[in-house]
UniProtKB/TrEMBL annotation:
Name assigned to this protein: ParB/Sulfiredoxin domain-containing protein
Cross-referenced InterPro entries: ParB/Sulfiredoxin_sf (IPR036086)
Superkingdom, natural source: Bacteria
SUPFAM superfamilies: ParB/Sulfiredoxin
Species, as recorded: Nonomuraea longispora
Length: 112
């Protein structure tokens, strides 16, 4: 089992594996607000958010059951998003995994 996991509703991803898979993909700037669709479902520790490194890329996966543009989900980086929004930032570095990588790091949910 992974050390770090992101779970949302009935879905979960192995963040450690996603981080390793992300090394194959480029870091690109992402519009933060386009990634915040589920923000109200995420628990944020404001004290922790105040200390996060905003240069570390968000990890984003494409959801197989949703259509663009709402098919992207941040599986690592919600405290960074919280801090960035609080600072008025519009963009953050991000890595978008491909569908094969998303499936490889998904622990439950979807068609599993």
């Amino acid at each position: 089992m992974s050390d770090e996991m992101f779970a949302l509703l009935g879905w979960a991803w192995d963040v450690d594996l996603a981080t390793r898979l992300a090394r194959r993909h480029p870091v690109r700037p992402a519009a933060i607000r386009t990634l915040t669709g589920v923000k109200d479902l995420i628990r944020i520790d404001p004290d922790h958010a105040a200390t996060v490194d905003l240069t570390k890329p968000l990890l984003v996966v494409p959801l197989p059951c949703a259509q663009p543009p709402g098919n992207r989900l941040v599986i690592d980086g919600w405290h960074r998003i919280h801090r960035a929004l609080g600072l008025g930032l519009e963009q953050s570095p991000a890595i978008l995994l491909d569908p094969g990588d998303e499936r490889a790091c998904r622990l439950r949910g979807g068609d599993i």
